[in-house]
UniProtKB/TrEMBL annotation:
Membrane spanning residue stretches: 26-50, 70-91, 145-166, 172-192, 258-282, 288-305
SMART domains: AAA
Keywords: ATP-binding, Membrane, Nucleotide-binding, Transmembrane, Transmembrane helix
Chief location: membrane
One matching Pfam family: ABC_tran
Protein name according to UniProt: ABC transporter ATP-binding protein
The species this protein was found in: Microbacterium commune
Length: 619
């Protein structure tokens, strides 16, 4: 994914400032950590001053006993300062580690909530690996930078500033040498930011692409093995991994260059200061203890100076991570609750499409709408089968009642109320779906089936009744043979189950939701003929009081319906009973023939759904 314009145009400070809402609750602890770190740095800067006094008094003391005593006192002073510095370092960690993890927790929770709220259209555009890398890797980088990088960067810059001022304490020339030799480092730091920022972004995006490849390979392992394409997948993965490695090497070279200057310039400063210091001693402007203290102070400043490169790159990594996370926060959610929602006191289940249009976001301007003016009414308690050739828009139509997508024209109504005027939670309580591609979660059978019943105590008697009824309708009695029955935790996406078992559990989940409108997108495609017949018989009883829209990809599914709607080139061209449409619509006969041919190829026997009248028509 590329950097959004809003992110790339921000300065590093402005980009990181967006973390303020998350950091604000812990700002007091961060300040405490910064003050502790600064105190540790100031204590470290006091040590050279103590050493100066020790050396000076050792040289000038009247007797050996007095000199030794002064040295011992100085040693204890240095020890006390060192212990004080260690205590301040411990305090810094105590102040920041726990609250930084709280920021990480809050950011992850809010990002997950955001991902759940964003429309399906967003997830169509984004790779799952990119989302996963932002959720895990990028937020972890932000947490480590807040707890470590931010505080040390601020404190080390202040330490360098305070130390530079103290260097002038002994002689202006020595201090000036350190300041002048620091100029190339700041120039290189500016150039480093420009180059490293782009590399950091590229690296983190490529890491997301690599995560996507791993996820796809794991989920598609059966396909890769079945077609013997494991090596092909490995080659593709290796190519992506090599690209990431090359980017990381370029990052490493950029960091090495800044480290070169950060290491070289202090060495030059030491050499020049030594020459200047000896000359100043000869001139009588400073003495040996002062030069000794100057170099001790310069040694203390060496770590803060050298760490700037690492901390600067860390800050740029955090800025890039923040950009990537906020790309998701800044996504516009087009499917939201209305400002003044309408409530359905006693929903009847009348579902209507009124001039409904829909086109996908990547459709070309010259292309017609995929759904090009749908007019269709499902009466309360009616079962409507939706048939049409592949690509006619059947599955897309089923996503509109529950607002997985919103119509781009016209409207969809439930009991005469535009579904966009209902709260999403209420709408999806009244409208349930079962998809052809059954998705299950790494949870128990009970949790998967009762997913849509937040109103029930999942282990209560009522929940048990609902669970059993739903499993009976879906002919999912196989769950009782699992190791722990309905408490068995099924594998990721239910891949430990067969396709038919997954579909039956997905169907049971839709039935257990007890909706007023049930939308089924060919939910029986993976079932054998005998099981399908049993499920259809049970569904007839369930659908007696439920409005149902069923996408029919098999002739037998049509038998469930009270009426059939024919979808052709984005429009409903005919509605009626199966018998009526066979008599009046040549396109319907063509669609049914296609379904029968597909069924014959799947089962080896043509299953024709026809009455005596229909047989006359066909004859």
């Amino acid at each position: 994914m590329s950097v959004s314009s809003s992110s790339s145009s921000l300065s590093t400070f402005a980009a990181l400032w967006r973390l303020k809402p998350f950091v604000q609750p812990i700002v007091g602890r961060l300040i405490g950590g910064a003050l502790s770190a600064l105190a540790a740095a100031v204590i470290a800067l006091m040590i050279p001053i103590v050493l100066e006094q020790v050396v000076k008094n050792f040289d000038l003391g009247g007797g050996a006993g007095d000199s030794v005593g002064f040295v011992i006192a100085g040693a204890f002073g240095v020890l006390a300062l060192s212990l004080g510095e260690a205590v301040m370092v411990w305090l810094r960690r105590w102040f920041v580690l726990t609250p930084a993890t709280e920021v990480e927790y809050q950011m992850r929770s809010q990002l997950y909530s955001r991902l759940q709220g964003l429309p399906v259209a967003f997830h169509d555009r984004w790779q799952s690996g990119q989302l996963l890398s932002r959720m895990m890797q990028d937020i972890n980088i932000i947490r480590r930078w807040l707890a470590f990088g931010l505080i040390l960067l601020v404190v080390n810059i202040l330490t360098i500033a305070i130390g530079a001022v103290l260097l002038f304490r002994w002689h202006w020339l020595l201090g000036a040498i350190f300041l002048v030799t620091g100029v190339p480092m700041w120039i290189q730091g500016y150039l480093f930011e420009k180059r490293y920022g782009a590399l950091a972004r590229r690296s983190q995006d490529q890491a997301g692409d690599l995560a996507t490849s791993v996820e796809e390979s794991v989920h598609g392992i059966r396909v890769l093995k079945a077609f013997g394409r494991g090596k092909h997948a490995l080659v593709r993965f290796s190519r992506q991994a090599e690209t990431l490695r090359e980017t990381e090497l370029r990052k490493g070279r950029a960091v090495a260059e800044i480290w070169f200057w950060l290491d070289l310039m202090p060495q030059i400063a030491f050499g020049l200061s030594l020459i200047a210091g000896i000359w100043l001693i000869v001139q009588g402007q400073i003495d040996v203890p002062q030069l000794f203290a100057f170099f001790a102070m310069a040694a203390v400043l060496r770590w803060p100076i050298e760490s700037i490169g690492f901390l600067f790159s860390f800050m740029l990594d955090a800025r890039t991570a923040t950009d990537r996370v906020f790309e998701i926060y800044q996504e516009t959610n087009t499917i939201t609750d209305p400002a003044q929602p309408v409530r359905l006191a006693e929903p009847r289940g009348e579902l209507a499409f009124e001039g409904a249009h829909f086109r996908y976001q990547d459709a070309g301007a010259h292309e017609r709408d995929l759904l090009d003016g749908i007019d269709l009414v499902l009466r309360p308690g009616e079962t409507m089968a939706l048939v049409g050739l592949t690509g006619s828009g059947k599955t897309t139509l089923t996503t509109l009642p529950a607002r997985l997508y919103d119509v781009t024209g016209g409207r969809v109504t439930l009991d005469g109320v535009d579904v966009r005027d209902l709260e999403l939670s209420e709408l999806r309580r009244h409208v349930a779906m079962a998809f052809e591609d059954a998705t299950l979660f790494s949870a128990s059978v009970r949790e998967n089936v009762l997913l849509g019943r937040a109103d029930l105590d999942i282990h209560g008697d009522e929940a048990e009744r609902v669970l059993r009824e739903a499993l009976d309708v879906a002919q999912a009695g196989f769950v009782d043979t699992l190791p722990n029955g309905v408490e068995t935790v099924i594998g990721e996406e239910g891949l430990s189950l067969s396709g038919g078992q997954r579909q039956r559990l997905a169907l049971a989940r839709a039935v257990a939701a007890a909706p007023k409108v049930l939308v089924l997108d060919d939910p029986l495609s993976a079932l054998d003929v005998d099981t399908e017949a049993l499920v259809e018989e049970a569904l007839r009883h369930v659908l007696a009081e439920t409005t149902a829209l069923i996408v029919a990809h098999r002739p037998s599914t049509v038998a469930l319906a009270d009426r059939v709607a024919l979808l052709e080139r984005g429009r409903i061209t005919a509605v009626g009973t199966h018998s009526e449409l066979l008599r009046t619509s040549s396109h319907y006969r063509h669609v049914i023939s296609s379904l029968e041919a597909e069924e014959a190829a799947r089962t080896g026997a043509i299953d024709i759904v026809a009455s005596a009248d229909e047989e006359e028509v066909q004859a």
